[in-house]
């Protein structure tokens, strides 16, 4: 039987289709990491009608330098101790008007949780991961105090109650009921977290 000339040819006509399908497959299955944002309420555009005077003792200053070191009230502090220090400041109740505060009532610290402000300042060279970790610790201080009061008043953690309230799948009647409770707890320890202008290292 005579042999046919030349090796058999490979049909490459469908290679473009295969490459296109592989491209779609990898686009669909690949996960792209994105930086999570921070939930912050922007200040109103209109300036306040009256100048607000804030006592220095009602401001808890936190500074992060480019090396990731923390200064709280001008003293070097470890990250693991930041939340406790912030909670002690917020829960101080120095003027005696806070009947739910369990702090030391130090007259040189914050007067009342409604007047207490945490001021965070970071260096331009501060690592993003450090910045986010410090933010989490400060927000965690608010959440722990809110959880305490929520358990005292309603027998449930504030974070769970707030998550159910913010869930769009929650029934509207339940959300209406939770709204009053969530706003009451937020009013006891309002989150006043201010970010000062970023500094530049010399």
UniProtKB/TrEMBL annotation:
Transmembrane portions of the chain: 12-32
Cited InterPro entries: ExbD
UniProt-recorded Gene Ontology molecular function terms: transmembrane transporter activity
Annotated compartments: Cell membrane
Keyword flag Ligase: no
Biological processes per GO annotation: protein transport
Keywords, ordered alphabetically: Cell membrane, Membrane, Protein transport, Transmembrane, Transmembrane helix, Transport
Signal peptide residues on this chain, from the entry's feature table: none
Keyword Cell membrane on entry: yes
A cellular-component GO term for this protein: plasma membrane
Topology versus the membrane: Single-pass membrane protein; Single-pass type II membrane protein
Main subcellular location: membrane
Top-level taxon in the UniProt lineage: Bacteria
Similarity comment: Belongs to the ExbD/TolR family.
Protein name: Biopolymer transport protein ExbD
């Amino acid at each position: 039987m005579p042999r046919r000339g030349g090796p058999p040819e490979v049909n490459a006509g469908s290679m473009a289709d295969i490459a296109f399908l592989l491209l779609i497959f990898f686009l669909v299955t690949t996960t792209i990491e994105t930086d999570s944002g921070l939930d912050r309420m922007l200040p109103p555009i209109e300036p306040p009608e009256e100048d607000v005077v804030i006592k220095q003792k009602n401001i808890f200053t936190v500074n992060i330098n480019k090396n990731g070191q923390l200064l709280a009230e001008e003293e070097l502090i470890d990250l693991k101790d930041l939340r406790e220090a912030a909670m002690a400041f917020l829960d101080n109740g120095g003027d005696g008007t806070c009947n739910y505060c369990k702090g030391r009532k130090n007259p040189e610290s914050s007067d009342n949780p409604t007047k207490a402000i945490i001021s965070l300042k970071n260096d331009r060279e501060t690592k993003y991961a450090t910045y986010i970790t410090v933010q989490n610790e400060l927000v965690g201080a608010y959440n722990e105090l809110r959880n305490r009061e929520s358990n005292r008043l309603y027998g449930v953690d504030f974070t769970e109650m707030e998550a159910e309230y913010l869930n769009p799948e929650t029934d509207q009647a339940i959300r209406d009921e939770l709204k009053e409770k969530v706003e009451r707890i937020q009013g006891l320890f309002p989150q006043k977290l201010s970010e000062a202008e970023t500094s530049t290292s010399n």
